[in-house]
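Contributing new records

If you add data, match the layout below exactly. Sequence lines come first and carry their own label; structure lines follow with theirs. Keep one chain per record. Anything else will be rejected by the validation script.
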Amino acid sequence: MNSATATALLAGLEQGAISSEEIVIGLLDRADRLKRLNVFVHLDPDHVLSQARAIDKRRRSGDSVGPLAGVPVAIKDLLCVEGEPTTCGSRMLRTFRPPYDATVISRLKQAGAILFGKTNMDEFAMGSSTENSAYGPTLNPWDETRVPGGSSGGSAAAVAAGLAPIALGSDTGGSIRQPAAVCGIVGLKPTYGRVSRYGLIAFASSLDQIGPFAHDLADTALILKAISGHDPRDSTSVDDSVPDYPATLGTPPESLRIGVVPEFFGEGLDPEVESAIREAIRVYEQAGATIRKVSLPNSRSGIPAYYIVAPAECSSNLARYDGTIYGHRAADFSPRYPGEESLAPMVRMMMASRAEGFGAEVKRRIMLGTFVLSAGYADQYYNQALKVRRLIRNDFDSAFKEVDVLIGPTSPTPAFKLGERTSNPLAMYLSDIYTITANLAGIPGLSIPCGLTKSNLPIGLQLLAPAFAEEKLLRTARVFERATDWHLKRPGVKE
């Protein structure tokens, strides 16, 4: 059962071969035995069981149930769930319990899904390895000496390790796709505006997007349909109809014009990763796809542009965490350094609260963002980065006039060792070199499993499509999934 897809579980539930309660009992038992992976930061067995029993009761009585009825879904710890701890992996919010549900949580409940715990993450979604969490790092189920990617590493590891059939994460610069790639599962970042961000604790508001993790594309399509759609509470949510992704998934796309981006095959790309991607391109050729080179010349500026725009928005969004209304408040804010005695007590309290509540990476990005927004520097840095962002979007617009989707690696390397990049922020930031531009442009991106290294580490294939073309993206990816069996591979986790 721990390797079953949501689609398979739903079939068993509908046939009466298994109950929701039996599913969650099995998963809770497995989660207890695999605590060492540090996947969950909050998992309440009683609450999970009560949800399962309620769904079973409705199903037995013949009541109408939703399309995800009885399926457990793991939730990244930055999505608000009423009354449940929501900490963003940070000491700053260790006591925060939201008084409301995020829109995606409300939609999961309406669909009958069982909310199966909160998963570990890089603090405030800032990281590529899930090592920046106040709860400690999550381990990769394929190799427990390696990272599961980030910032949604807990959600990715939950699906890969068979602790939940599907999970939700968020993607600001690759935080769904990169963990999906190094954990050997499917991860989708929808178009900006496709899924409501209401109730998502923000990192960078113009970049953040919520999306699913799953074992295969059928499950991905199922949950994407459930969480997508307009939400008047989110001003960036687009009022557009949502396609029936599961219904159209099996229909091959009308055309298969695939663009290979030369800029995605440069210095720093692991040879085994490149070989797997080249083989995936051959699979598409054999399926009748037209392959052509399509350049994204401004993608080289993606990392520097992102690490100006994202920290700037982070600096603004995290200014609210100052110990005055909610979040961590320092107990001792007496003067600690020369000159502090002249500051008002409230100022010292705010300084001490932020110093204690935030981790090193969050502090780094707040300081960087505050600098690029400061008087005299905003024009030199922030406004220039916005111009580069526009050029990156223009590159994608031009590319999609020639091809239907773009193809390339998701991550330049397989999962790296725990601690390998913690002292080198630039090396860590380069983990997202192929994913960041999709966020800057607001387009959808998908990572699917496409191989294993000689060391048995997963490799991810990234597909990118025009804005709101998730249906085309999924159908194109399904062509590859049908021709291969990489999505069936599971890590040999020892219990």
